[in-house]
Structure formats: C-alpha cells, structure tokens
Design a protein that fits this description.
By secondary structure, the protein is of the alpha/beta class. It is about 40% helix and about 20% strand. It binds adenosine-5'-triphosphate (ATP). Adenosine-5'-triphosphate (ATP) binds next to strand 2 and helix 1.
C-alpha cells in the first residue's frame, strides 16, 4: 500500500481547532477583527453572519489561503503552516462557496485527486495520470469508492462530474474533501442553491461525518439548517464575533436579530412579508366592515 490513509481521530472533547485573535486587513479594510474560535473533536460548529461579515475571509485564514495580519491558528495544538496544501496535509479539509470540481473528470477521479495529500505521488501525478499514479491507484480507488458509497454516489463513479445534478456535485465536493482524511472539515455554504430535500440530506450527511470522528465548522445562511445541526454557533458581524453559544442562546440574542435586520432569517418573516400580512389584515378588516354593514351579501355571491 503506497498510501498513508488516515490522520488520527482526536478523542471527543479535545480541541482540534484553536484560532486566537485572528485579524485580516485588506489595505484600509479590516475584514476580520480579533476573532477567537475553537472547535472540539466531536463537535459541529456553525459560523453565521450577514453578507460581507468576514466569514469566508476567516475560513481563508484557517486554511492557509490568507496569512492573517494578526493572530494564530492551531490545529491539534500545532501552529498551522501558511500554505493551503500543508494545511490540508495537517488535517483540515474544506469545500468552497462556489463548486470547484474538475468537470471533465469522472466522479471517482475527482475523489482520487482529493487524496493527493495522502499519497506519495502527489497532486500533479494524479491530475496528469503519470505511471506512479497508476501503481497507487488500486488502494486509493478502494478508499475513494468507500467514500462514494458513504455519500451515496457509488453508482455514478464513472459519470463526468459536470453531468451530475447540482446537489450531487455539492456532495461530491464533500467526498473529495473527505478523501484527504481530515480531522476537521470546513464547509462554506454547503446547501447554497439546494432544495429543501437536498438540504435535509446534507444535514444527515454532516451528522454522519461528525459520527465518523471528524469535527465540522460550517458557514451557512440557512438558519434552520444551522440551528438544527450545530452544537455551537458563532456570529460574525462586520468582522467581529458578536455572540457565541448554543442554538437557543444565539437565536434568542437580540443583538443577533438586530444584526440581521434587513436580511431576515430564512423561513422567518421579513419586512416585506410583514407588510403583506398587514395589508391583507387591513383588507380583511375593511371587508368585514363591509359585510357587517350589508348583511346577507355573502348569499349574493
Ligand atoms: N481579497 C480581498 N481583498 C479585499 N477585500 C476583500 C477580500 N476578500 C474579502 N474582502 C472584503 O472583506 C469583507 C468580508 O468578506 P467575506 O467574503 O469574508 O464575507 P462573508 O461573510 O463571507 O460574506 P458572504 O456571506 O456574502 O459570503 C467584505 O467587505 C469583502 O469585500
């Protein structure tokens, strides 16, 4: 076997991610300011906040895409190297807000590419299919098929990724991230563009990932999804962490509601809906008045 297939699963409760004082400035703009966040093994943690709050920038600081202007990020007590492939090799995998699959490669090949940090052959060998890649392929293939089975796409292993329906492409991205055998998985808006059924399936998938001993940090705008799923939720507003706590605490916090004004929670009434309800009620009231004033009108219709 040419592959080193696993990172060690941390015991439940052990701190896998520890970000302290993370600040990210772009010129004069401070996108993330002095954010502390930790994730323990066995946990699903949510990161929410209005558009532009700094969530993706924070993810990029955790995964070596950005080097934070200030602060430190540790994974299992080791400071992370400032290079994304080294972060992946250390044990943190991620998906992106926009799907980043290799559309002209098969479903299986996409997962195999995700294994490059766990094989000797490396990324380019996998992409260019060099001879060394073929030698390692059997073992990697077996593991990749296991992952496809786990996400329910084993029947489509030979399909081109670009031909998958949208919801399955998102699942495939998760399988590709899992192929690097992470101890922590970062999901950036995993249900964006999904219908309610696909969203529910993603929820189940994330629980199953957690049950495999992989901690999860997830960014999402779908509040129902977040509050159902997460053990803990942190709220970023204008780059700063406003509140952190369990779902009930965060949902009940007036500052969180205020931060979302003008951008209502999904499935919660917003200003437009409230205006519609008020207009309908006003209309009903005036109809009642008319009916009261003209008894018997009902029978005329
Ligand atoms: N590379 C960059 N250069 C300059 N400004 C940036 C860069 N990346 C992000 N920003 C800015 O940082 C702020 C935070 O953006 P970010 O994408 O992290 O927010 P977000 O919370 O992920 O938003 P959304 O929910 O819309 O994805 C925004 O004002 C954005 O314009």
């Amino acid at each position: 076997m040419t592959t080193d297939t696993t990172t060690t699963v941390a015991p439940t409760g052990e701190r896998v991610l520890d970000a302290r004082g993370v600040t990210m400035r772009f010129g004069g703009l401070t996108a993330v300011r002095d954010v502390d966040l930790h994730v323990n093994a066995g946990e699903i943690v949510g990161l929410i906040g209005p558009n532009g709050a700094g969530k993706t920038t924070f993810f990029n600081c955790l995964t070596g895409l950005y080097i934070p202007t200030e602060g430190e990020v540790r994974y299992k007590d080791k400071v992370l190297p400032p290079k994304s492939f080294k972060v992946t090799a250390a044990g943190i995998a991620r998906t992106f807000q926009n799907i980043r699959l290799f559309g002209n490669m098969t479903v299986l090949e996409n997962v195999l590419v995700g294994r490059h940090t766990r094989t000797k052959e490396g990324f380019w060998s996998a992409v260019l299919r060099l001879p060394a890649f073929h030698k390692a392929e059997a073992a990697s293939r077996e593991r990749a098929m296991e992952l496809l089975e786990f996400i329910g796409l084993e029947q489509k292993a030979d399909h081109l990724a670009r031909n998958l329906p949208y919801g399955e492409q998102r699942k495939l991205e998760i399988a590709r991230a899992l192929a690097s055998e992470p101890g922590l998985l970062l999901l950036d808006e995993p249900t964006a563009g999904m219908n309610p059924q696909e969203t529910r399936a993603t929820e189940e998938l994330v629980f199953a990932i957690r049950d495999k001993g992989i901690a999860v940090l997830v960014i999402e705008h779908d509040m129902r999804f977040i509050f159902n799923l997460c053990d803990r939720v942190a709220v970023l507003v204008q780059g700063e962490k406003l509140v952190e706590g369990d779902s009930a605490t965060v949902q009940g916090d007036e500052r969180v509601v205020a931060a979302y004004l003008g951008e209502p929670f999904e499935n919660a009434p917003g200003d437009e809906e409230l205006a519609e309800v008020e207009a309908a009620e006003a209309h009903a009231d005036s109809a009642d008045t008319t009916t009261d004033a003209a008894p018997g009108k009902e029978n005329d219709r």
